[in-house]
Design a protein that fits this description.
This protein is an all-alpha fold. It is built from five helices and no strands.
Length: 113
Amino acid sequence: MFSLAAFMLGGMLPGDGRDAVKAWFSLGDIESIAHFLFSAWLVLLGCLLVGRHWVVPGAVIILGALIEMIQVWIPGRSASLSDFLIDVAGVALGCILYVLLRRFLRTDQSVIR
């Protein structure tokens, strides 16, 4: 739940607030990396927790698109197609990691038995 809140809050902070957070934590220019990793993490975690691996990636893509569209009305922010596409790439990574993790866990359990 914290990951989802951080994803949404980070996307909807006004420009000055986002810059203050980046300065406070000495994050530098990490927006692209943050988009990619948060999307991957949300998909991986969501698929593991919810179990509906076909719903979670779509929900994260829709959420990313909505956040980008909402940024048009947030002072100091703007919508970005490249940020959205980076979100989609992160979703793809999250799906790949989920499939690999499930395969690994299945293989590992069959070896134990």
